[in-house]
Specification:
14 helices, alpha/beta, binds ligand EPZ, UDP-n-acetylglucosamine1-carboxyvinyl-transferase, Chain, four-stranded mixed β-sheet, globular
Length: 420
């Protein structure tokens, strides 16, 4: 398994271009199953999760062609069974459930199963499709859904941790071809849901309210092919902003959507980071002095859970006590023990991590456990004294396009070590 060897201590300087959003392109790729006509998706990031979703679409019978950042999908004929092993490997592929149900009125998809950050249930996904008239059953590790007819309905999709992003995506994609009106209450408001709704609308769907907690869909008979450019990845942008601040550098981000980053910009400014916006450019430097902050992760437009681990690294460098509370996932502190190996002083109290910041980090061999924890360990390696080896970086390749190339272009001393 590949690893990164990072020699810390270099402030990041220069320009970085933000790629298309992983969490937008995955449901949009699934949405192409809703029409037999070809769809063209642009600004597609070169990520292992995206390539994998392409394999899943092929396994369902679609023609899939990548040409650099442009993807063409033609799902003329589609079968409704999501390959067990494939879907299990990538939780995000559960978002094929809704479009298969919408297109074929049936689907058989392997249960995504949990991962290191939590149980990742799909009860709200199933509540939503049942409201539209689908029968659901769990059999042999698969979730099987079928609906002779899909009829618009009103459904509340809020769970114990608030809305569900992919649950909203699945119900949205199942409802666009249902008969009648569907109202999704407590819908997720993430920009990725809005991007999906915009793509579906360009295919001929009739959707109002995407981005708000109430989405209204008027079902249509069929959808046609469309072209779409994916929004930039706000989590990648936040990651580079924090890396710039943590290393005491001066980085300009190109192509980020600052309106998708309001909570992150606000919290980083409170922590003493200087962020200047000019048009679509975001210039990030560390201000005079970093200040400890309290962060709680919330559904959008609150502070994103996918930026929690990265923010924690910045707080380990900040003299004083910072408290980071994770309200979305039940166990998203896998990075804490690894940061402890590098000298960070962090105590976990229930959903909160209490960070006693200020001591310098020292390089060490550390283990990546999930996508965003890996990003946090890379940032820690960039600022630590000495060398840090981040193992199992296949996690990071899932969600960050060429992150080592981008970091090297900013002056970082990062080497990808390919294990035989
Ligand atoms: C999406 O996951 C993202 N993944 C996650 O990003 C992100 O962290 C998450 O949304 C929250 O913003 C993709 O878009 C591919 P949820 P999703 O359903 O949709 C509970 C990354 O690093 N819940 O919004 O699977 C769930 O347990 C990944 O890029 C139920 O209880 O997340 C969690 O506590 C990690 N029942 C909360 O809701 C359900 O049926 C939010 O989960 C579904 C979810």
């Amino acid at each position: 398994m590949d690893s990164f060897k990072i020699r810390g201590g270099v402030p990041l300087r220069g320009d970085v271009t933000i790629s298309g959003a992983k969490n937008s392109v995955l449901p949009i790729m699934a949405a192409t199953l809703l029409t037999p006509e070809p769809c063209v998706i642009r600004r597609v990031p070169n990520l292992s999760d995206v390539k994998f979703m392409g394999e899943i679409l092929r396994s369902l019978g679609a023609e899939v062609a990548f040409d650099k950042e442009t993807l063409t999908v033609k799902a003329e004929r589609v079968n409704g069974v999501g390959d067990y092993e494939m879907v299990r490997k990538m939780r995000g592929s559960i978002c094929i459930l809704g479009p298969l149900l919408g297109r074929l009125r049936k689907a058989k998809v392997s249960l995504p199963g949990g991962c290191v950050i939590g149980a990742r249930p799909i009860d709200l996904h199933l509540k939503g499709v049942r409201a539209l008239g689908a029968k659901t059953r769990i059999q042999g590790g698969y979730v099987c859904v079928s609906a002779p007819r899909l009829t618009g309905a009103e459904v509340f999709l809020g769970g114990r941790s608030g809305p569900t992003v992919l649950g909203t995506a699945n119900v949205l994609m199942a409802s666009v071809l249902a008969e009648g009106v569907t109202i999704i209450q407590s819908a997720a408001c993430e920009p990725e849901v809005v991007d999906l709704a915009n793509f579906l609308t360009s295919m001929g769907a009739r959707i109002q309210g995407a981005g708000s907690p109430t989405i209204t869909v008027h079902g249509v008979k069929e959808l046609h092919g469309a072209e779409h450019e994916v929004i930039p990845d706000r989590i990648e942008a936040a990651t580079f902003m924090i890396a710039a601040a943590a290393t005491g550098g001066d980085v300009t981000l190109h192509g980020a959507r600052t309106d998708h980053l309001t909570a992150v910009i606000d919290k980083l400014r409170e922590a003493g980071v200087r962020i200047e916006r000019s048009g679509a450019l975001l210039k990030v430097t560390r201000g005079r002095k970093l200040k400890p902050v309290d962060v709680t992760t919330l559904p959008y437009a609150g502070f994103p859970t996918d930026v929690q681990a990265q923010m924690m690294v910045l707080m380990t460098l900040t003299p004083g006590i910072s408290i980071i509370t994770e309200r979305i996932f039940e166990s998203r502190f896998m990075h804490v023990s690894e940061l402890g190996r590098m000298g960070a002083e962090i105590a976990i109290e229930g959903p909160s991590a209490i960070v006693k910041g200020g001591a310098p980090l020292s390089g060490a061999p550390v283990m990546a456990s999930d996508l965003r924890a890996s990003a946090a360990l890379v940032i820690a390696g960039l600022v630590a004294d000495g060398t840090t080896q981040v193992n199992r970086i296949y996690h990071i390749d899932r969600g960050y396009e060429s992150i080592d190339d981008k970091l090297r272009s900013l002056g970082a001393r990062v080497e990808r070590v390919e294990e035989p």
